[in-house]
């Protein structure tokens, strides 16, 4: 493996100056099915490496693992016998260290955020924002997420989330969801949760009009797919300093030509939620490739896959402290995560400032 880890992805040129090309891939994507799917966490990774360094990174992994498989995936790295290879990939001597970024979404919390934004907040859908139109909406989402299961019990809580998920995918009648809301209120919920459910119960007219618009324009950007805000945040992250970003991404059915065009608009005029973290970015292009044809996307695939598994294990209180600590420097602060305990370990460490003179 070369020591030249500073060989980054190629900087294209434009009349306005250089363009930074980032390679991206995801893990845990099930479209708009957030509840009851195969995964409870979504992860999206972006890397800033040249094709040459990425190819060397893959060759290093192959040389250490020595599997006869023609295509390596994250599950190779996640096997216990290959733990040293995974530690190397995430560790400080890896070429991705300092050159990679991971956006995480706890799918249940992402769904709760959409419940609040789209129904209680009655906002127009903004796919580019992870969630929350304002602090009050965020506070309600956190309360409902953290108190919902405790108030209703695991089965009823999951049924509520699945009902909302199906409503937003036009899989059930609007009546079904609001009957569920009424039934939960009859269980005698605590004050804050009951107030949120009361607001939800009043949102029926908005739900009707929202779904009517959705059905009229089925090609719109998916309402519940975390891939969209993940790409927006990747551009925002890598655009720090004002550099325009182009993305090469593994092929994905959700990234149609129309949606890519809409994404470029979103990045340049984002929701205020995005602006909490960074000035707006600029997406110059998004090119889809087969991951097997681009070593940079393969490395992003490795990182997304291992990040999703490490984060999911921590969310479910079976985390690996060593791997969580290695993943932490890559995790984006704007990830959609509602569980305090696991986020305290996964999220970026708080910045500590040295005391000033005379302190």
Poorly predicted runs: 2-11, 124-128, 272-279, 354-359
Strand content: 5-15%
What's the tally of helices? 15
* Broad shape: globular
Mean pLDDT score, rounded?
A: 85
Query: For the terminal residues, how far apart are their CA atoms?
Result: 46 Å
Helix content: 40-55%
Question: Main beta sheet, described?
Answer: 6 strands, mixed
Descriptive overview:
With 359 residues, this protein is an alpha/beta fold. It has a domain at 107-216. It has 15 helices and 6 strands. Strands 1, 2, 3, 4, 5 and 6 form a 6-stranded mixed sheet that branches. Helix 7 packs antiparallel against helix 8 (191-201). The N and C termini lie far apart (46 Å). This is DUF3800 domain-containing protein.
In short:
The protein is an alpha/beta fold and 359 residues long. It is built from 15 helices and six strands.
Per-chain topology:
Elements: E1 11-14, E2 17-27, E3 41-47, H1 51-65, H2 74-77, H3 83-90, E4 100-106, H4 107-120, H5 135-152, H6 154-168, H7 174-185, H8 191-201, H9 204-216, H10 227-238, E5 245-250, H11 257-268, H12 272-275, E6 283-289, H13 295-315, H14 321-327, H15 340-346
Parallel strand pairs: 2-5, 5-6
Antiparallel strand pairs: 1-2, 2-3, 3-4
Helix pairs in contact: 1-13, 4-5, 5-6, 6-7, 7-8, 13-14
Protein name: DUF3800 domain-containing protein
InterPro entries: DUF3800
Organism: Sphaerisporangium flaviroseum
